[in-house]
Amino acid sequence: MSARKKVLLKVIILGDSGVGKTSLMNQYVNKKFSSSYKATIGADFLTKEVMVDDRLVTMQLWDTAGQERFQSLGVAFYRGADCCVLVYDVNNSKSFDMLDSWRDEFLIQASPNFPESFPFVVLGNKIDVEESKRQISQKRAMAYCQSKGNIPYFETSAKEAIHVEEAFEVIARNALAQEESEEYNEDTWATVNIHFDDPQGGCAC
């Protein structure tokens, strides 16, 4: 039995500056947290090999700068993504209100073949901050995710490593499913094109 080819999954992480995108990535990949991260300039990425069911996959996690001036990073950055993670800070209502803007930006730039079924995951980060400072309730966030087609939702803390592993497990699984569906669709189209282009194929009418 031949070895199954190694899969590279591209995951884009979007959200306002300061919501903890870099911290979440570093907690997941390196099991580390630092409170002194500098703002990301442009884009940066980390990779991690993980098992999804029986498959070894390499996740390429792309972290973007949340500042408006870096928002249009170009089509090449978004293209080929298998999953998009939208991050907000549960203690910052503006970062939650911006989720739609980030989601729309991704769909425009990445232009996936099937935008209505493209996998998104929403992370409400910084739940380690005291409850009195919280501005977005879990109920409100879940209602938003349901209205967008039941997007998976996790409340996380990069600082305390709460639900980070579980969230990225779902991200990896959804990204792999997307990658496989893209491959299936490409193979199907190739078969259809061969059938119609083949002069020996005759007419099916």
Explain what the structure shows.
This protein has helices at residues 21-30, 75-78, 93-97, 99-110, 138-147, 164-197, and strands at 7-14, 43-52, 55-64, 83-89, 120-125, 153-155. By secondary structure, it is of the alpha/beta class. It has a six-stranded mixed sheet, sandwiched between helices. One of its GO terms (biological process) is regulation of vacuole fusion, non-autophagic. InterPro entries: P-loop_NTPase, Small_GTP-bd, Small_GTPase. Keywords: GTP-binding, Lipoprotein, Methylation, Nucleotide-binding, Prenylation.
Number of domains: 1
Query: Secondary-structure element sequence?
Result: EHEEHEHHEHEH
CA(first)-CA(last) distance:
40 Å
The fold-level CATH name is Rossmann fold
Strand content: 15-25%
CATH class: Alpha Beta
Which blocks of ≥5 consecutive residues have pLDDT under 50? Answer: 187-205
The tally of beta strands, per DSSP, is 6
Give the neighbour order of strands across the main sheet: 2-3-1-4-5-6
> Could you estimate the helical fraction of the residues in percent?
25-40%
The chain-level structural class is alpha/beta
What's the name of the CATH homologous superfamily? Answer: P-loop containing nucleotide triphosphate hydrolases
Mean pLDDT: 83
What general outline do the C-alpha atoms trace?
Answer: globular
Q: What is the number of helices? A: 6
